[in-house]
Amino acid sequence: MIARRKTRQIHIGSVAIGGDAPISVQSMTNTQTSDVEATVAQIDRLAQAGCELIRVAVPDSDAAQAIRAICDRINLPLIADIHFDARLAVAALEHGAQAIRINPGNLGGPDKLVRVVDAARAHAASIRVGVNSGSIDKELLARYGYPSPEKPDSLIESALDKVCQLERLGFDDIKISIKSPDVLTTIASYRLLARRCDYPLHIGVTEAGGLIAGTVKSSLALGVLLLEGIGDTFRISLTRDPVEEVRVGYELLRSLRIRERGPELISCPTCGRTRIDLFNLAEQVEAKLQTMQAPLKVAVMGCVVNGPGEAREADIGIAGGNGVGIMFKKGRLVEKVAETDVLPALLQELDRMEAEYLENLNKAGRK
After folding, report:
1. Which of 19, 61, 75, 242 is deepest in the core (most CB within 10 A)?
2. What is the pTM of this model?
3. Residue that finishes a domain, picked among 255, 278, 303
4. Residue at 1 is within a domain
């Protein structure tokens, strides 16, 4: 059983962060924020995948002004990501952003930070203090050195210094992130920060890479931290479609038995016994599962003989080869069909199981 670190709780719109709130999964759009249609379309896809918080880049006034139109058309709390320009932070808040991500040290001085904090307070918005290993003050780098697994102090001191700036202005609706592209530095930094404050923490590995490298690095760093009870919200940063970030995020939570969302896919890695296009079959099933809510275990196996036994814990599964397909539940054969019909048969049964799950959910909600 994982013992969560005790933190104060903040809110971003309707989503609670920290305290006893569930660990939330977030992502960031890669569209031009000023392109409202493209940004809303991407956010809708992210919401369908289970994204709970969405961050958008605000590089100019057009992006800041577009936030109003975006917020009017989405159901996720929106975080505006600001660098260097206090005017953009204020404008983003005035146009509906429920939170902002800033580095208080690069907004242009104390007076500008005051204006940003006043706007956040006026709009009941929270602030994420975000410090990356590449944005540490020069004097802190000179004092502590570049952050490393052995000495991550410059990263922590930079973040806490920025938090103190906000606290001196009477603002504490804060969460903190300190990111590094290095796995071991990320782990060491968050461990130390977790001992130094009780603010909720957004955890992640910055510039993690593409699907393979990014998934491995993020899962290692975040997996260790989450097992230690550190982390209240996170993003898996990938150089990919951001929907993939959300999918990896929920698989990480599922693997640690922290949270589950939707079905789990079990599929064999294939071997010389496989006589079916398992890769294509698994991809089609996975695409279906991403649209479902029922917490099922679904297996796609390549061997009719051994598949059901190897996936005996699956709620439902299929296997095929040499023109024959079978469907099984909990390891027991329930239907035998032509190989070409095995996928349609599974999809039909998944629709039935999803409808039954949602009906039971609705009944429970009405009681």
Report:
1. 242
2. 0.87
3. 255
4. no
